[in-house]
Design goal:
Order of helices and strands: HHHHHH
Distance between the termini: 38 Å
Strand content: under 5%
Helix content: 55-70%
Shape: elongated
Number of strands: 0
Amino acid sequence: MTQPMEGGRRRIDRVLAPGYLDHLAERPLDEVRVLRRDAEQEESDLSYVRRLLQGRLDILRAEVSRRAGGGQEESEADFVTRLARTLTDSGPRSDQSHARVPHIDPSRVGEHRRRVEQIVADVGFSDLDALSDDELSGAISRLGAFEDEVSQSRRKVQEVVDACTAEIGRRYKDGAASVEDLLTGR
């Protein structure tokens, strides 16, 4: 899902294609901006998928912790409280790179949710109590591996965004582009 396919038609296939950034310095400024916008949109989509996966991983890891602490039965209210605590962002994440791109809503939200839910369904996420410790560990491994794949693709896409941004900045610095042109729409 997040690995580019040579000759593929998806945006990630285009953005991470070997020739995507070829001759960047010779391309018209508007074209470089379009390349950057496409890469930013793909980064936003990958970030969304990653957040979905991280939320599910947080829930699975919380279940491991619950079991390690004795795994007593809990009421529905206790479960909801624990779940809310698990999913609450109680501080900065170690990876703050999601703040690097201006806010762009993810596209294809339904497609991304379905893919993550398909993976989660394969894990047996709907009834964590029914999973053995080994099954729970395997589920964490599978989701973690997919999250790693998404993160690797996201980093590659961020490199494309950075290259386009650097080229646009270079043009303004060197005088090949001007802010007046941007403001007047030329």
